[in-house]
Structure formats: structure tokens, C-alpha cells
Amino acid sequence: MDEEVTIIDSNTRNEKILNFFINNKKNLIVGFSIILVVIIGYLSMKEMKERDKIKLANQFNITTINFKTEDKQTTVDELIKLINKNDSTYSPLALYFLIDNNLIDNKNEINNLFDELINETKLEKEIKNLIIYKKALFNSDTSSENDLLQMLNPIINSESIWKSHSLYLVAEYFYSKNQKQKAKEFFNKIIIIPNSNSSIKLESQKRLTRDFGE
For residue 129, what is the enclosing H or E element? Predict the structure, then answer.
């Protein structure tokens, strides 16, 4: 008797499942089709991004390899194109190459390229902080106190790994301007913060001992 009940229940359950698929056939087909399209679209997008990345890598390598043989302006134009692609890897590398090889004399143009990376390129947080720090370093010889601090405040007011680097840059800036009390304050901040770079912390301690008698 129990066995017959079990068989009946099983048949009923199977019939309900079959009826569900029959009654909802159209919706199920549409649902599976959407899922399939999404998967194909995702894979296609991923493959497209990988192809674009390879293309940008080739463009960067060819441009930098041919740097000595081609005219300067061609190299500059190609690297600026790369920067404006807003790629997280090759756009920063292109800007660094321009700066390291002094290919652009106009400081405002370089700053505009820095801003393109900082404001328009999707970057990991600490990579973005590094670029902000490099912009401040690039401008430190000519910036006013307010401009330098404004550039570095996003890092100084955070727990970034570049915080101690930024504080050291500001301390050196004030020291070069003979504002020694302000320089001392920033060297002391480096000593206090818990995640200071060990080399910068040691150098700050040396500066405080040598230049401030502490």
C-alpha cells in the first residue's frame, strides 16, 4: 500500500514538472536565450578588451623602441594618443616616458595629461594616488605652498601607502623655502603615522637629528 502511494506521488510530481515546462515553454525559452546572450556578450567583451590591451601594448612598445630613430614629435603624438585611451596600464607608462625623456617642454601640457589620468582613467586607488604624488613632485619646484598642499591633500588626508612620501615632499618643500618650523612639523608627522615607509621614516629621523637637533 505504501509502495503504491509512493509511486502515485512520484507520478504526480513528475506530471506537475512536465506540465510546468509545457505551460511555461515560451518563457523558459526566452529566459534561457537571454542568459545565453549575456554569456556570449560577456565573453565577447572580455575577448575584445584583451585584444585592445594587446594592441595598446604593441603601440607603446613600437613607439618607445622607435624613439631614437623617429622624429620627436611623432613619438609625442603617439604617446599622447595612448594617454587619451585611458588605459590603466599603458596610459600612465606613456606619460612617464614623456616626462623621463623631456619630450614636452610645456608644463601646462604635462599637467593636463596628468589630469587626464587622474580624472578620466579608471585606476586602482593606490595607482591613482601614485600619479597624484608624481604630479606634485613634477610641480614642486614651481608650485606655491597652497597649490602643492591642494594637490597632495587627497593623499595626506588618507591612509594611502604614499602618505609618507607626500609628507616628505612637503617637508622638503618647506625646508627649501627656509620655512624650517613647517618642515619640522611634517618630518614629525612622518615619524608618528603608523604606516610610514620605513626608508622615509628613517630619513626623516636623520633630518630631524641633523637639521633640528632632535
Answer: helix 125-139
